[in-house]
Amino acid sequence: MKITNKFNLPExxxxxxxxxxxxxxxxxxxVTEIISPPRVQRLRKQHYHEMExxxxxxxxxxxxxxxxxxxERSEIVGHTNEERLMVGIGDxxxxxxxxxxxxxxxxxxxxxYKFTSxxxxxxxxxxxxxxxNIYKYLVERVKRKPVxxxxxxxxxxxxxxxxxxxxxxxxxAPIQMVDIPMWDYADIEKFIEKRIELHQDxxxxxxxxxxxxxxxxxxxxxxxxxxxxxKEGRKTAVRVFDTEEEAQELLKExxxxxxxxxxxxxxxxxRCTGNxxxxxxWCTQYQNSLKEEV
Length: 294
Ligand code: SF4
Prior knowledge:
Blueprint: E1 2-4, H1 11-18, E2 29-30, H2 31-35, H3 38-47, E3 52-54, H4 59-73, E4 79-89, E5 92-104, E6 107-116, H5 118-122, H6 126-143, E7 147-156, H7 161-166, E8 175-180, H8 185-204, E9 222-223, E10 226-231, E11 239-241, H9 244-253, E12 260-265, E13 268-269, H10 270-273, H11 284-293
Parallel strand pairs: 1-3, 2-5, 6-7
Antiparallel strand pairs: 4-5, 5-6, 7-8, 9-13, 10-11, 10-12
Helix pairs in contact: 3-8, 6-8
This protein binds iron/sulfur cluster (SF4).
């Protein structure tokens, strides 16, 4: 991957961004790999040498790396930082690097640091659940000790003190601890086997973009179309609906003087349109969907 420096930032940042921090040790797959869509993984492997990213767009990745380095230096009894665990699943080796484990007498708490948005915190983030439960499996298998809770330490990069002061549902501090639901050991094992199988199958068809498994709506971070009922002179919507019919109903009830109208907020697959997967230009699934829209 080529790192560009369009805003003439210090060379030290470019050097930091260019370093490859990612390692899965001797394993065949990492946890991050198996939870990500096979289509993304295969296209990234095929086009890695053509991919480009500007150092200015890598700020949060750099801060995430810095946090891990700093966290590794703190030594607190009963806390294990940055530990890589590895297990065999059939003839495949799977590894995962766990940010923090807090070891108590009655079990281990697994904690992962995430730099993320307020939107992610307030909406479902299934990949957090997948990742944390696979870490639970690794810990229980390697250490033979139960995991008693799974938690995310979410650092909200777009948190606003102003929003927090006026919205009671808004996170009240820029760092939040989030509890993740735990799965049974056997269910996690089945899930891991299924994900490895999916990735192994996609390797067979690596040269055939059309034959790669399609990314699901969940994997594409699909936001559905919404219908906002608004009135003239007011910035925010009166209410937002999932269907046009519901919006029409409310519109009929509004007094004429409000000059109500419906604003259609078109749904989109955010991961594709924002190229958060990094491979949208080579992805036939996304490129075909754009042609269909024309
Ligand atoms: S562009 Fe969308 S559909 Fe294609 S690989 Fe990326 S996330 Fe998946």
